[in-house]
Amino acid sequence: MQAVILVGGLGTRLRPITYDIPKALVPLRNKPFMGYTLDFLRGGGIEGAVLSLGYLPDPIQRYIDERGDLDGFSVEYAVEERPLGTAGGIKNAARFLQDGPVVVLNGDVLTGMDLRKAIELHRSTGALATITLTSVEDPTAYGLVEVDHDMMVRRFIEKPSPDEVTTNLVNAGVYVLEPEVLEMIPPGREVSIEREIFPRLQERRQLYAHVSSSYWKDIGTPRSYLAASHDVLSGAVGAGEGFDYMDVHRSTLIEKNVRILPPVSVAEGCEISAGATVGGRSSLGRGCRVGEGAVVEGSILLDGAVVEAGAVVRGSIVGPGARIGEGAIVRGLSVLGARCVVGEGNVLDQGIRINPGVVLQPRSVSF
Ligand code: GDD
Ligand code: MG
Questions:
Q1: pTM (whole model) above 0.85
Q2: Which ligand sits closest to the CA of 109?
């Protein structure tokens, strides 16, 4: 069986990171997200995928080309010129699909669910489409799904308002679709599978669901991306490592009195100066530098990020090549875009987002 991976979205909610890196390639434990997606599909017995691309397709294609270890797993690219939406993106991929059912996956979900079981259940009901559901605390950011006792979908409401919330079960973004569903998608325009196709299938009593209780997360916001990073580092999902996970590349330059706290992942070419503390579910991309006495905890530093002496980064995301000046404090889910400069002595907090390339003068922001 083949899969279509939807990876054409703009990643708006994960800006400023997604100005430079498509959501499908943001790293978790220094492995691009797409790597987890491919592992998930291959683990579920899928033989090949069509990537439904739109925004920033080139780095995604390059990642696949450079991986080169997909032995036998075929990858095709369907690139759209303008956004076609979630159903339009599937339609655009159809020319690469063989006849028969297909798995469709939102390219931003991290999950340990059993894909083989989903396919099996789909076959057993004979429905045109089967969607996997997961339980979340606040369904308003997702597609809410009401089901009957026999798991036929009774209602699908994309992004329900708080007063429409009747269940905690939402669309997990993993579907099995029969070819008839692809024929229902009008060609050449933007079509949302959640808003147009699922409600029509539901009316025809052709949409079934099953619930997965496995790990599941949509990494589309800074909060959920950082949480997924923490979860992968601490072994809640992925390779199954524990809280003692410590992967520090052998090229790392570590000066005296450095504290490395697991779980932590440090990629090639990093430098950690004397007295610094790095870890507590942090990951440092290639070529990062952490200055004397600086602290990096519970954070993601992307390639080439620099944290100067005495600075503190906690629970935040630092874009590629960004620089945090001496004694600055970056905490509380702050998100810094690529190459921005936080001058010394600034304090960033409360989910502040700094656009790529912005320079904050010393001591200009405090909370
Ligand atoms: N090719 C293509 N074209 N892909 C797209 C487009 C498009 O125009 N728009 C979005 N995508 C891709 C995104 O890149 C992402 O991987 C996936 O489709 C889902 O889009 P999101 O923008 O992340 O949607 P969402 O998270 O708000 O909601 C969706 O996912 C939830 C689960 O994570 C919906 O399917 C919800 O019903 C669902 O609960
Ligand atoms: Mg999403």
A1: yes
A2: 1
